[in-house]
Write a structure and sequence with these properties.
This protein has about 200 residues and is an alpha/beta fold. The protein is built from five helices and nine strands; from the N terminus they run H-E-E-H-E-H-E-E-E-H-E-E-E-H. It has one domain: Rossmann fold, CATH 3.40.50. The chain is globular, with a radius of gyration of 18 Å. The structure holds zinc ion.
Length: about 200
């Protein structure tokens, strides 16, 4: 599966001169939600991810996603695996499972995101699941930003990755981009374009 082509074709992977929320500049920008805009595409990606998880032989009772970003990916993944889905959300800054969702003692839960950067929200969701007696058995995402190590890959996780090293992390591929400080940005040096923040132009 050519993940980069899929993301590019639907406008989820933008190429240009971007200002990131960190203040740094980049030639690429991910609008992860765009890739799930088309239910057929979401289904295709989730089925591919489910295949990898099934092939590993891992047993899963349910999928949980941190809201909002992970919900569509997690729901489609749960459908593809054939298990139930629930989500966690922040209440006063704390990742919480509410809305009547229950976690059984020892329930084997996979935490799913649309994209994993450092995995902070996924880790917070896993804490909420464990606090209710569930067992978090794996993490998954459609795409990985290159900080965490995908199950089966020999690339090591970078220090920024917050996912536990003893649990498998499944993803369809990596999107690893160079990030520049404004003073070192090659696009700025070229001087033809100004960095802009996607979203600030209504996109
Ligand atoms: Zn720049």
């Amino acid at each position: 599966m050519d993940l980069e082509k899929i993301y590019k074709d639907c406008g989820a992977l933008l190429e240009g001169h971007f200002l990131l929320s960190s203040g740094n500049h980049s030639k690429f920008y991910l609008q992860s939600a765009k890739v799930l805009e088309e239910p057929k595409r979401a289904e295709l990606l989730a089925k591919e991810l489910a295949k990898k998880i099934k092939e590993s032989g891992l047993e899963i009772d349910s999928v949980c996603s941190p809201a909002l970003g992970g919900v569509l990916a997690g729901y489609e993944l749960a459908r593809a695996i054939g298990v139930r889905f629930f989500f966690a959300e922040r209440v006063d800054g704390v990742m919480t499972i509410r809305r009547g969702f229950e976690v059984k003692k020892g329930e084997k839960v996979l935490v799913c995101e649309d994209i994993i950067t450092t995995g902070g929200s996924a880790l917070e969701a896993s804490e909420a699941i464990k606090n209710l007696g569930g067992e978090v058995v794996a993490f998954a995402a459609l795409a990985n930003r290159g900080f965490c190590s995908i199950f089966g890959s020999n690339k090591e996780a970078k220090k920024e990755c917050k996912l536990p090293k003893d649990l498998p992390f499944f993803a369809l591929g990596d999107f690893e981009f160079d990030i520049y400080s404004p003073s070192e940005c090659p696009m700025c040096k070229e001087g033809k374009t100004k960095a802009y923040k996607p979203g600030s132009r209504g996109n």
